[in-house]
Amino acid sequence: MKFITYSAGETQQVAKNLAQQYHQGGIMALFGELGTGKTTFTQGFAEGLQVSGKIISPTFTLIREYPLPSQPQAKLYHIDLYRLESPKDIEQLGIREIFDNRHNIVLIEWADKLGKILPPQAVRIYLKNLGQNTREIEIR
Ligand SMILES: Nc1ncnc2c1ncn2[C@@H]1O[C@H](COP(=O)(O)OP(=O)(O)OP(=O)(O)O)[C@@H](O)[C@H]1O
Ligand SMILES: [Mg+2]
């Protein structure tokens, strides 16, 4: 599926719609250069799952978690690997354990840094900058 959006709000709407298919859990791997809208997409996705609170990008911790109103035994995880120094650090972050609970909802910015750790069932979302406010979003 491919979408072209013309504002941050439209990107959030695409994500919000997609989220409806993943109330039971899922892994969304986000790929795209700086400022293409990975965090914006995550915000829309979280909104679609009625996750309350402002989604801001994790920096020092690399991972932020939010309760899921529809899934008390799982959480929404927002992972941003931009500052990941070495693939070895992935083990310490506990990402595998997060993936192991199939009810968790996991959004990962800079998911290419996960390499082979990214599970095959992860939904791959490619964002591209086509102009100041124009983005292409490809979901595979
Ligand atoms: N169509 C669009 N979709 C998404 N964001 C857009 C769009 N048009 C403009 N923008 C702007 O582009 C910026 C996207 O920033 P955002 O933080 O979501 O990107 P990012 O991919 O997470 O960047 P980073 O790699 O730094 O984490 C925001 O300022 C947003 O308002
Ligand atoms: Mg970001």
From TrEMBL:
Family stated for the protein in its record: Belongs to the TsaE family.
GO biological process, one term: tRNA threonylcarbamoyladenosine modification
Keyword list, A-Z: ATP-binding, Cytoplasm, Kinase, Magnesium, Metal-binding, Nucleotide-binding, Transferase, tRNA processing
MF term (GO), any: kinase activity
Name of this chain's protein: tRNA threonylcarbamoyladenosine biosynthesis protein TsaE
Subcellular location: Cytoplasm
UniProt GO cellular component terms: cytoplasm
Pfam families reported for this sequence: TsaE (PF02367)
InterPro entries reported in the protein's UniProt record: P-loop_NTPase, T6A_TsaE
